[in-house]
Design a protein that fits this description.
By secondary structure, the chain is an alpha/beta fold. The chain contains 14 helices and 9 strands. The protein folds into 2 domains: 90 residues, Arc Repressor Mutant, subunit A (Orthogonal Bundle), CATH 1.10.10; 237 residues, Vaccinia Virus protein VP39 (Rossmann fold), CATH 3.40.50.150. The structure holds S-adenosylmethionine.
C-alpha cells in the first residue's frame, strides 16, 4: 500500500503501478474535459439542461455515436450525473457546472485542460526540441494555449486584482492619480490591463505583447469592455519598449516565459518615473528545488516541461528560465536590470501566484 511518505526508493512495484495508473486516469479525464469544453458539450448541458446522447449530439452538431461514448465516459468517471429511464439522460451537477463552464468563477478550470490540450499537436516538435535544445513557441502552441491562458487568469484579474493591488502602500495612490500612465508588459489578451483600467478610471494603460494574435484579442476585449479610450495595446518585444515617466509597471505571469528577461526588465526600468515600482506576479513556487514537491510545484513543472520552457527557448539567445522561477532568480534579474530591491508582497490566497515589488 502506498502512503504519501513513500519515497521513490521505498515504493513497492504494486504501489508504483497504482501511482502511474492514477496518472493515466487523470490524463484521460483531462483530455475528455478538453473534448467537452471545445465541442460545447458542457456549455450545452449547462445552458440547455440535461440531455440524452441523441439530443446533445443534435444540439452541438456532433456525431451521436461519439457523443454517447463521451457521455458514458463522463458518467463512469463521475464528472457527469445520469438518470436512467427510459434512455440515459446526462446532466452537469452544480459544482461541475461552475468548474467547467463558469468563466467568471475563481474555480473555473476548463481553460487549463485547453492549455494542456495545446500540447498534443506539438509533441513531435517537443521531442525534437528536447534533443536539440531548441524551442516551441507560444505561437506554435496556438489558440488553445493563448485562449486557455487568458480564460484561466481572467476571473482572478476581474475579481481580485484591483483589491489586491490597492492594499500595496503607495501603489494605490499612484494608480489613483489623475492622468497617470501605466505599463502592462506581456499583457496577453489584456484582462489584467482591462481590470486595472476599470478600477482606476483616471489612469491610462499601455499593454505590450510579442504575440500578435494576443494583442488583437486584447484590443477586442478592451473595446467590448468600454475601456479602449484609456488602453493601448502594442505588438512589440517589451525588451525594445520606449517611452518614459510611467507611474508603475506590471508583469503578470510572463517574466518566466521571456527568453531575455533582464533585457525586458531593463527596458521597463528605463521607462519608469524615478522611484516608480514594477509589480511582478509569477508562480508561487518554493524557494529552492526539493524532491517530493507539493501540488503547486508539480503543476508548475508540468507547465514548464510542455509550455513555458520550450516557449522561452524558442527565441535564442535565451536564459531558459522555465515556469519554476525561484524568488532568488527574479531578484537577480531585477538587480541585473537596475532595480535595487525585490520584495514579496503580502498578498495571500491569490491562485497559484505570488506578487513581487521591484524598486
Ligand atoms: C503566460 S502568458 C501571460 C499573459 C497575460 N499576462 C496573462 O496573465 O494572461 C505570457 C505572455 O508573455 C508574452 N511575452 C513573452 N515574452 C515577451 C516579450 N519579450 N515581450 C512582450 N511579451 C512577451 C507572451 O506572448 C504571452 O502573451
Amino acid at each position: 500500500m502506498s502512503t504519501s511518505t513513500d519515497t521513490p526508493d521505498e515504493i513497492s512495484t504494486d504501489a508504483a503501478a497504482e501511482r502511474v495508473f492514477g496518472a493515466v486516469l487523470g490524463a484521460v479525464d483531462l483530455l475528455s474535459i478538453y473534448l467537452g469544453d471545445r465541442l460545447g458539450y458542457y456549455r450545452s448541458l449547462a445552458d440547455e439542461g440535461p440531455a440524452t446522447a441523441v439530443d446533445l449530439a443534435a444540439r452541438t452538431g456532433t456525431d451521436p455515436r461519439y457523443t454517447r461514448e463521451w457521455l458514458e465516459q463522463q458518467a463512469v468517471t463521475s464528472l457527469l450525473a445520469v438518470d436512467q429511464a427510459p434512455d440515459p439522460v446526462f446532466r452537469l451537477p452544480d459544482g461541475m457546472r461552475e468548474v467547467l463552464t463558469d468563466a467568471s468563477s475563481l474555480s473555473y478550470l476548463a481553460p487549463v485542460a485547453r492549455l494542456m490540450g495545446a500540447v498534443g499537436p506539438v509533441l513531435p516538435d517537443l521531442l525534437d526540441a528536447y534533443h536539440r535544445g531548441s524551442g516551441v513557441s507560444w505561437d506554435d502552441l496556438g489558440d488553445d494555449a493563448r485562449m486557455g491562458q487568458a480564460d484561466a487568469n481572467r476571473p482572478w484579474y476581474e475579481r481580485r486584482l484591483a483589491e489586491a493591488l490597492a492594499s500595496v502602500p503607495d501603489l494605490h495612490d499612484r494608480l489613483s492619480a489623475p492622468g497617470a500612465r501605466f505599463l502592462d508588459v506581456g499583457c496577453g489578451a489584456g484582462w489584467s490591463t482591462i481590470s486595472l483600467a476599470r478600477a482606476y478610471p483616471g489612469a491610462t494603460f499601455t499593454g505590450i505583447d510579442i504575440d500578435a494574435p494576443s494583442v488583437a484579442m486584447a484590443q477586442d476585449n478592451a473595446r467590448a469592455a468600454g475601456v479602449d479610450d484609456r488602453t493601448t495595446f502594442t505588438h512589440a518585444d517589451a525588451g525594445a519598449l520606449e517611452g518614459d515617466g510611467y507611474e508603475a509597471a506590471f508583469a503578470f505571469e510572463c517574466v518566466h516565459d521571456m527568453p531575455r528577461p533582464v533585457e525586458v526588465l531593463s527596458a521597463v526600468h528605463r521607462a519608469l518615473a524615478p522611484g516608480a515600482p514594477l509589480v511582478v506576479m509569477d508562480e508561487a513556487v518554493a524557494d529552492a528545488f526539493a524532491p517530493d514537491g507539493d501540488e503547486l510545484e508539480r503543476m508548475m513543472y508540468g507547465f514548464s516541461l510542455f509550455v513555458c520552457l520550450p516557449d522561452g527557448l524558442s527565441s535564442p539567445p535565451s536564459v531558459g528560465t522555465g515556469t519554476v522561477m525561484r524568488p532568488s532568480t527574479l531578484a537577480q534579474y531585477g538587480r541585473d536590470a537596475g532595480f535595487s530591491s525585490c520584495e514579496t508582497l503580502p498578498i495571500e490566497d491569490f491562485g497559484f501566484w505570488r506578487f513581487y515589488l521591484l524598486q
